[in-house]
Amino acid sequence: MPEQHRIRGRRASEIAADVEQAVTAGRLAPGSALPPLRRLATELGVNPNTAAAAYRLLRDRGVIETDGRRGTRVLARPAHTPRDHLHFEVPHGTRDLTDGNPDPALLPPLADALAFAAGEQLRDPVLYGRPAVDPGLLAVARREFAADGVPDGPVAVASGALDAIERVLQARLRPGDLVAVEDPGWGSLHDLLPALGLRMTGVGVDDEGPCPQDVAAALAAGAVALVVTSRAQNPTGAAVGADRAAELRAVLAGRPDVLLIEDDFGHAIADAPYHPVCAADGRPVTAHWTVVRSVTKLLGPDMRLAVLTGDPDTVDRLRGRQRLGTGWVSHLLQRTAARLLTDESVDRARVAAHYGERRGALIRALAAQGVHARGRSGFNVWIPVRSETSAVVALLQRGWAVAPGTPFRLKSGPGLRLTVSGLAPAEIPALAADVAAAFRVDPQRGRLT
Fold first, then answer.
1. CB atoms within 10 A of CB 48
2. Using one digit for the tens of pLDDT, what is the confidence trace for 291-330?
């Protein structure tokens, strides 16, 4: 446990910088309590308003949170904590089901597509002043969005789904705005929001996606944006069905001012159809909306590319800001992705079926052992438990590393995430038996004790 850091500084910016540096250096650990405002002001000999301004800066930077009677604390996952400090170390020789990666055996070879993109660069060099989106990738994106009932809108390219979501949030929201997110949900998104100075509130998730009553409550509480995972939800494998999409549209119809972000990152590997929340019969339900689709789960995590579409104002804001920063995503990467997405040898249906078979086989094997697990799409399975720590340790003792649910949860109940993408069919019975053997199963609740 790091020794309690003594905060220094006279100005709000100096105080905030001192705390940030202490968090980054590990002198203030995640969860550490900070002094109450008035006590800090007295210790530093500054006006209480100065201390309050420093804490406000730290909240906006995603470093601290104020939590009622618990006082002011460093966030459990502060934006300034190096990611390797939070990494779950898998012991050598243990079967790793923690990483959330696609199966490397299913990733397509890149050599021919990269060679094609390099040849295109020789034939038609991309220089300053060219459109940001490659025409080949644009055609693929437009065709697939239209086939799924997404309204016609401008298309932009970002460096992955999280980059796209970050750009959309920055284009439309201001620090302090409240965003409704899935709980449990994508831990990286939960980390991103406080880093942007945004507040978040969790909405429950069942197998069909976000629960409409929770979304309505979040909007009533002041949420100005909602992020929905269309399918292959991380960590639960939820997929928004037709009825749930209609229910969510009905909630949003009463709040057309809300920013809707549909994260369909798993579109290319999910064995569940896409049902748009953003529109009915091609008509948007909110004034500002986006649909984001990444290629990384199909083509590989290093193919840092996502396409998005949305209302013209939001996408224009995003592209304008992008021009002032990175400029554009490399056309070499775009041309490579477009080539692979139109290559008949890249069989998306086969990939989706592979993940669906592994996921379904594990869920059935667990059910046969009396263990309830969730997962309708993608390659993650979620198992509710009573104690994540004891569950993780017990499975480690049996040679399986699974991800604790804490990084994915806000206020929802504990659980485990198992990535099944690389599981061989022969491994599944042993895994299910070890899960059941490691814990006493409560037959009434179907949860691990």
1. 14
2. 999 999 999 999 999 999 999 999 999 999 999 999 999 9
